[in-house]
């Protein structure tokens, strides 16, 4: 029996809700590690609002799949984790692979939403997806990103402080990608 088997009751396969929660927890853990460097399961639980057991389980799963590793520590029971620090030649995940993983989880969550939103409570059956193209300088692009971060700042403490969440609050994916659109090259035209 594996840890994955122990995470699903009576040997059942995980439901889509359980799968989503796995991705939600693992994505949150990877983001936290990218932000703060190293955390223990207890610290992650405190910051993310999950149980330390759940964080511990998913930290071990991320380590098992090569995304994180134990961080150096001075002994004792504390077991801090960090993003894998090996070189690309060593075969571990690179920053690009971490970005690809995050985007893949975002895209998977979006597809799950599209297929299951009819089953969501009526007040949650809409989304606020949009995209835009704006002509910006590099400095303006940075200012737009800062405005978005400041707009979200009043809600950030709710992640670490579950009691600060209003009764009807639910986790909502907020994905922003600001990048310059590059001109098509001759190679691109041949592939079209």
TrEMBL record:
Region of interest (Disordered), ranges: 1-21
Bias type Polar residues, positions: 7-16
Protein name in UniProt: ArsR family transcriptional regulator
């Amino acid at each position: 029996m594996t840890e994955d088997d122990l995470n699903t009751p009576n040997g059942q396969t995980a439901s889509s809700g359980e799968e989503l929660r796995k991705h939600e927890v693992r994505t949150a853990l990877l983001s936290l590690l990218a932000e703060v460097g190293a955390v223990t399961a207890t610290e992650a639980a405190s910051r993310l609002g999950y149980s330390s057991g759940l964080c511990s389980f998913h930290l071990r799963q991320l380590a098992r799949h090569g995304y994180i590793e134990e961080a150096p520590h001075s002994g004792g029971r504390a077991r801090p984790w960090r993003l894998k620090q090996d070189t690309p030649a060593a075969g571990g995940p690179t920053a690009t692979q971490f970005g690809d993983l995050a985007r893949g989880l975002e895209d998977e969550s979006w597809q799950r939403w599209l297929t299951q939103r009819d089953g969501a409570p009526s007040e949650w059956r809409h989304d606020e997806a949009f995209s835009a193209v704006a002509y910006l300088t590099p400095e303006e692009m940075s200012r737009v990103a800062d405005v978005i971060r400041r707009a979200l700042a009043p809600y950030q403490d709710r992640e670490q402080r579950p009691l600060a969440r209003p009764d009807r609050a639910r986790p909502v994916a907020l994905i922003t990608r600001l990048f310059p659109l590059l001109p098509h090259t001759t190679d691109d035209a041949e592939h079209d």
